[in-house]
Every structure is written in C-alpha cells, then in structure tokens.
Amino acid sequence: MNKIIEEARKESRTLLSEIESKQLLKEVGINTTEIKLAASEEEASDISQKMGYPVVLKIASPDISHKSDAGGVKVGLKDEEDVVKAYKEIMASVKQKFPGAKIEGVSVQNMAKPGTEVIIGMTKDAQFGPVLMFGLGGVWVEVLKDVSFRIVPLTRRDAQEMIKEIKGYRLLEGYRGSEPVNITVLEDMLLKISDFMEKTPEIKEMDINPVFAYKDGAIAVDARVVLEESVSR
Ligand code: ADP
Ligand code: MG
Questions:
Q1: Distance 233 CA to ligand 2 centre (A)
Q2: Which residue has the higher pLDDT, 99 or 176?
Q3: Residue 230 has pLDDT above 70, yes or no
Q4: What are the structural domains, with CATH classification, of the chain?
Q5: Statement: the pTM of the whole predicted model exceeds 0.90
Q6: How far apart are CA 177 and CA 30, in angstroms?
Q7: Ligand 1 probe mutation, 16, 55, 73, most atoms within 8 A of CB
Q8: Which residues contact 177 (CB under 8 A, 6 or more apart)?
C-alpha cells in the first residue's frame, strides 16, 4: 500500500491533508506547488524565505476543508512582514469561525502564476465504480455546473472528448486575448489519475480544485483526497 495512505490508515484517518494529497499527486507524476507545513509564525517565515517569495499561506486543519470560507487562505505574500501578518490573520479568523477545530499550523506554498482554472475530480459511483470529472473552475462549475464525466479506466480518446465537450471549451482554446492552454497536458493529468484510481481502491474521492492550466503546462494548486473506511481487495 502507498506510504501516505498506510500512515493515514494507521491513524484511522480518512481525510488526507492538502500536503499529503499533493504528495500523492506528485508520486503519480502530476505537477503541484511546493508545499510545507509550518507550525508557527517563525517557521512560516523561515520556510517562505527558503522557498522564495511570493508565497501563499493556508490553514492546515483536518477539520476545515473549505479553507477560504474560513479566512484561511492568503495569496501573494511578498516578504516576511506579509507572511507574519497573514499567519496572524488566518489564525484569528479560523479561531473565530471554527473555535473547536484542531489546527496543525499553516501550509506554506509557492505562489503559482495565474492561469486558466480547471478542476479534476474523482468520485465512486455505486454502479460504475470510479468516475472522473473535468470542468472549468470558478463560476463555470459553481453556477453553470459545466462539467463532464467518464468512467475509469479512461482511454486517450475519453480524455480528449471529456475536455472538448464542456461548454467552456473555447476558453481553453484561447478566447478574446486569453491564452490557449496545453490540452494534451490536461489529458495526461486525467490519464494519470485514471491509472492511479485503478491501482488504488483505497481512495474514495479526489478533488483537484483548482488546477491552473497554461500554454506550456499545468499545476495542481489545491488538492483533497478522501480514503475509503476499509477496502476488500
Ligand atoms: P479552498 O479550500 O477554499 O478551496 P484553495 O486552496 O483552493 O482553498 O485556495 C483558494 C484559491 O486561492 C484558489 O482557488 C486559487 O485561486 C488561490 N490559490 C490557492 N493556492 C494558490 C497557490 N499556491 N498559488 C496561487 N494561487 C493559489
Ligand atoms: Mg480549492
């Protein structure tokens, strides 16, 4: 069994942290932001210094899955002063909104350059088993529910079709000054996840929201993995 999954299992946890989730993605060959846990202001400053500015700070808590709703995400931090201030603000906001939450600290990550936001998800259907979802991020998914689905395992053809069939596809091709993104890289991501899901029945759900897509690549900016309670192989 995968080390990260095994570790969570030992602790009877089904929710992987953002750090663990990104580590899993990295192992699968998916590009993610650098990410490290900081348990104090000082540690957050040290890590930021080493990582290089600008950085992003996010609340690290097993009890908080919608980090920005909790005031737990600060982006574009350009120096130590910004980091210390962001750390304090995140803690104050989270303690007020989720007084009972267990807090591990913050994750420090490099700030990804802006791109076209897409999402990739995996859920399990009672009948079909693992199913992958693809869509554009932001309002496209929240308001317009503009997403497509395919059953695992995906073929290259499936990956191509599921990207092409969303209504917002033209945005990915480049629309009114927005840069076209590399579609093949997104297909590769879908195929890598499909492959991983086939081999890893312990995973119940996965959310990569958002992925920033660029003309020359793509990067997972947020990730969340939920494990099954138990698996019979
Ligand atoms: P939430 O738990 O609220 O979904 P996210 O980790 O997705 O939190 O962060 C919220 C938003 O902040 C993202 O949609 C993205 O636009 C921005 N963001 C988060 N992390 C980064 C990063 N490392 N680089 C650039 N932007 C980021
Ligand atoms: Mg997110």
A1: 31
A2: 99
A3: yes
A4: 6-15+114-227 (3.30.470.20), 34-110 (3.30.1490.20)
A5: yes
A6: 28
A7: 73
A8: none
